[in-house]
Design goal:
Distance between the termini: 25 Å
Number of domains: 2
Structural class: alpha+beta
CATH topology of the largest domain: Glutathione S-transferase Yfyf (Class Pi), Chain A, domain 2
Radius of gyration: 17 Å
Order of helices and strands: EHEHEEHHHHHH
Length: 204
């Protein structure tokens, strides 16, 4: 398999999952800062111009964070990266959708790319503040869901890898992180797979 990634982006969570699985994989750098995701070479791989993208062993490309994580969990059932029961599966999907579609796309996207949400430069601080509010509310809810447990669903799952990249962004931006999530982030940073992913991406 080959993971198309950009250091420190949301692809960090998929990178860590691949490290958890332990099967051989390659990394292919897509430099978002230089706009490499908009160039024809990467467009031929993923016309959505986003990371992550996963090239599977049969050559097919899989995109979208949730889909890639779900595929990795389902194709490696022995690792139990996804609850086996229906209720556990739908709760995982519920968490993934909220973290990626809301906390990431409605929150952090406004913080990172305020100019994409308004044609007026003077409005950008307000856009950033809206993003921060979304993240703060999302983190409050996720902290409540985590509660006293080590991981979101009790045992480690793909949902924790999604929360990890959000926590990583918050720490990098010096945004408030609730105590429970701060402990979750520290716990994952100590997992060998996550330590390797961070080191490989130059994030330690």
């Amino acid at each position: 398999m080959k993971l198309f990634y950009s250091p420190g982006s949301c692809s960090l969570g998929i990178h860590a999952l691949l490290e958890e699985i332990g099967q051989p994989f390659e990394l292919a750098l897509v430099d978002l800062k230089s706009g490499a995701h908009f160039k024809a070479e990467y467009g031929a791989i993923n016309p959505k111009a986003t990371v992550p993208a996963l090239q599977r062993d049969d050559g097919t490309i899989l995109t979208e964070w949730q889909a890639i994580a779900w595929y990795l969990a389902k194709s490696n059932p022995a690792l139990e990266l996804l609850p086996a029961d229906l209720e556990g599966e739908v709760r995982t999907l519920e968490l993934l959708d909220y973290m990626v579609a809301t906390v990431h796309m409605r929150g952090f996207s406004r913080i990172f790319r305020a100019r994409n949400f308004t044609p007026t430069t003077a409005d950008e601080p307000a856009v950033v503040q809206t993003g921060q509010d979304v993240v703060a509310h999302g983190f409050k809810l996720l902290d409540q869901i985590l509660g006293p447990r080590a991981y979101l669903l009790g045992d480690f799952s793909i949902a924790d890898a999604a929360l990890f990249y959000l926590e990583h962004w918050a720490v990098a931006l010096s945004l408030p992180v609730p105590p429970g999530l701060a402990g979750h982030y520290a716990r994952l940073r100590q997992r060998p797979a996550f330590t390797r992913a961070l080191a490989t991406e130059g994030l330690v």
